[in-house]
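Page 37, continued from 36.
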């Protein structure tokens, strides 16, 4: 059912409601209206990386890992899997008369905020720091979730609109101040594209204020959304964000005024309880009945487009048996394989089992299920940790010795132990008894995440720095001092500086939070059954550089992300090694009426077949408004056989060559120069890979 037809039905239905009934539908827990045959519906559901919080489901890598794939086509397939499993779960719930939370088809995903500061705990939920990568990946996930059928398969939601990326502990009272250039160049492009190109059905407002206005009632943001961009879907508040109007931001004095302010601004759906005050607001003359009815029409338009108002759809026959089926798990495995980033390798990887008769697997994340899943996750019928993956793969061939080594962040594992670092002796013994060591360290959702989502030992859900907790730092030193060949496997959702341990280790593989069975995939990569091919969607900084970075609360992009960072990073955005030796040997750019096509020849001088990501960066030389460094303007994942070549074409719309001035206007300025390679055209990438990008002038 198209939007026009759905809106007509919604309008006819809402016309039959009393204003009290219409107002009641603006709550995320929308009650049934029996006299009109309207079923109850709970709007709150999550699908950040697979269906979340709703029982068993196929679990993909955390969103930051999906960004690291640089593969929108696979992301769209994953979105379709999430929607299919969501339909199966919805169908089952309806059969049992269950209308509770996490049962509906309106998914509050994806999170397309920009990961601008490496300390942000929720950065793991994003697709990274780059506007284009976020846009392409976000649009793909929305297309997958919503589908291409006559009926919308599921309703996606672009969040959090807008200019939202920490600090977590200030979000209920904070004003994120951003200039017109940063808004147009960094913070808004993904939202605009998801609305205009992917036709996302919902947009969620952020907790904070932006430039003085609370995001769930911002006249300027709503003007862009519904005016300039033509958004026709529904707008939902973040959960209990409207309460912050009077409790945190102090832009209103009472809950009634807050509810009135939000609904008058165009916030259709309240996640929270503020809209229980709407009838009082109407009685006081603060809200018109027509305003409430219009929001109800928008909400029922979505429900009709989903085919859940009694008319049925082609998705009603999806059986529950699709959930966690083999085909979907294989796609999740493919995603994890493409997401892992090889940061360092002196030749230890892939592990040579002819030389390794005993392998030591050490670390607090080695056998941790929590380190597989990130946050906003579902449940799985089977988990495979890194330790289990290696044990399964090496059974009968190589002995695997294991030690947790230390707690994730506490000084000791046993509360009754008198000694700090009470398992170090075991970890050292395992290392000494092994021919090589896999040291699995990192974080999990208890250390980085959303405020209030889980307990956090550091008192907030953002990181204080980029170092691992002291217990892990001491463990890494103790194990590396043994002197055995060691690979560090890092499971985390953000930039980490391994410091001296990163320099001493023979190899470093970043697995992110790889999904429920991600340990199997990581084992395959370590053992050479596949080649790593992920690329960093964020910059990895040296921890010491945080002292020179702008304050966490500063939303100017100066000094942030690869586009504006002025120093040499630890690992650059777009960087990632493979087991091959891949580089672009030649490239040409052909200009058309509106697009530019870059054709690149990619060679693999290595002995291993691999995938890699060809990246094209743009710089406007002699421009006063261009970012400090070349910016990503196109990319394509490719397969390159050992000792072979592949040719790839990347189409780049001409508007990506425009720059944004201080007034937020996109203008043509400077000489356009392109760079084609398998990473950024920067000195650090050249140092790490030994290769440079091909320069092209338009």
């Amino acid at each position: 059912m198209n939007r026009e037809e759905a809106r007509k039905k919604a309008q006819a239905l809402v016309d039959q409601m009393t204003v009290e009934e219409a107002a009641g539908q603006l709550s995320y827990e929308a009650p049934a209206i029996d006299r009109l045959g309207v079923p109850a519906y709970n709007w709150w559901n999550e699908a950040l990386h697979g269906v979340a919080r709703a029982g068993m489901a196929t679990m993909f890598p955390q969103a930051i890992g999906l960004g690291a794939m640089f593969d929108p086509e696979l992301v769209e397939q994953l979105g379709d899997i999430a929607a299919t499993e969501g339909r199966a779960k919805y169908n089952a719930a309806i059969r049992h008369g269950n209308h509770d939370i996490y049962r509906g088809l309106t998914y509050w995903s994806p999170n397309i905020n920009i990961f601008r500061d490496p300390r942000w705990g929720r950065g793991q939920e994003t697709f990274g720091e780059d506007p284009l990568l976020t846009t392409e990946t976000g649009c793909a996930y929305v297309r997958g979730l919503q589908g291409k059928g006559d009926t919308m398969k599921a309703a996606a939601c672009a969040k959090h609109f807008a200019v939202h990326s920490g600090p977590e502990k200030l979000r209920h009272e904070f004003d994120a101040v951003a200039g017109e250039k940063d808004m147009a160049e960094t913070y808004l492009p993904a939202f605009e594209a998801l609305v205009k190109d992917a036709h996302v059905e919902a947009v969620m407002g952020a907790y904070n204020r932006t430039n003085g206005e609370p995001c769930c009632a911002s006249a300027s943001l709503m003007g862009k959304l519904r005016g300039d961009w033509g958004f026709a879907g529904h707008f939902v508040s973040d959960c209990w964000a409207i309460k912050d109007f009077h409790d945190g931001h102090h832009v209103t004095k009472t809950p009634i005024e807050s509810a009135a302010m939000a609904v008058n601004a165009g916030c259709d759906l309240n996640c929270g309880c503020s809209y229980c005050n709407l009838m009082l607001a109407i009685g006081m003359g603060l809200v018109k009945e027509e305003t409430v009815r219009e929001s109800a029409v928008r909400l029922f338009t979505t429900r009709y487009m989903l085919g859940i108002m009694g008319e049925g759809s082609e998705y009603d026959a999806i059986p529950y048996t699709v959930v966690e089926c083999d085909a979907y798990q294989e796609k999740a495995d493919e995603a994890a394989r493409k997401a892992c980033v090889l940061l360092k390798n002196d030749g230890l990887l892939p592990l040579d089992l002819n030389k390794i008769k005993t392998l030591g697997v050490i670390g607090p994340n080695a056998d941790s299920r929590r380190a597989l899943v990130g946050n906003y996750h579902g449940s799985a019928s089977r988990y495979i940790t890194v330790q289990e993956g290696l044990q399964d793969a090496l059974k009968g061939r190589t002995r695997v010795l294991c030690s947790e080594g230390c707690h994730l962040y506490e000084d000791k594992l046993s509360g009754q132990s008198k000694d700090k670092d009470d398992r170090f002796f075991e970890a050292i013994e395992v290392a000494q008894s092994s021919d090589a060591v896999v040291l699995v360290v990192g974080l999990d959702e208890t250390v980085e995440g959303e405020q209030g989502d889980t307990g956090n030992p550091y008192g907030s859900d953002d990181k204080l720095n980029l170092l691992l907790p002291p217990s892990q730092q001491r463990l890494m030193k103790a194990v590396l001092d043994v002197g055995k060949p060691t690979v560090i496997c890092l499971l985390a959702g953000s930039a980490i500086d391994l410091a001296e341990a990163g320099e001493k280790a023979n190899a470093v593989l970043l697995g992110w939070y790889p999904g429920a069975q991600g340990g199997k995939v990581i084992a395959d990569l370590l053992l050479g059954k596949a080649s790593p091919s992920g690329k960093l969607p964020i910059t990895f900084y040296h921890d010491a550089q945080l002292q020179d970075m702008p304050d966490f609360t500063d939303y100017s992009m100066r000094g942030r992300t690869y586009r504006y960072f002025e120093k040499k990073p630890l690992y650059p955005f777009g960087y990632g090694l493979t087991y091959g030796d891949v580089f672009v040997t030649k490239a040409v750019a052909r200009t058309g009426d509106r697009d530019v096509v870059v054709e690149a020849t990619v060679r693999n001088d290595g002995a291993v077949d691999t995938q890699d990501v060809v990246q094209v960066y743009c710089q406007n030389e002699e421009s006063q408004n261009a970012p400090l460094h070349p910016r990503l303007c196109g990319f394509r994942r490719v397969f390159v056989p050992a000792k072979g070549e592949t040719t790839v074409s990347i189409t780049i719309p001409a508007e990506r060559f425009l720059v944004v001035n201080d007034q937020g206007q996109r203008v043509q300025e400077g000489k356009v120069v392109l760079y084609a390679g398998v990473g950024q055209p920067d000195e650090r990438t050249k140092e790490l890979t030994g290769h440079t990008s091909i320069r092209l002038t338009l």
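Residues 72-95 form the longest helix (24 residues). Flag for discussion at group meeting. The two ends are 45 Å apart (CA to CA).
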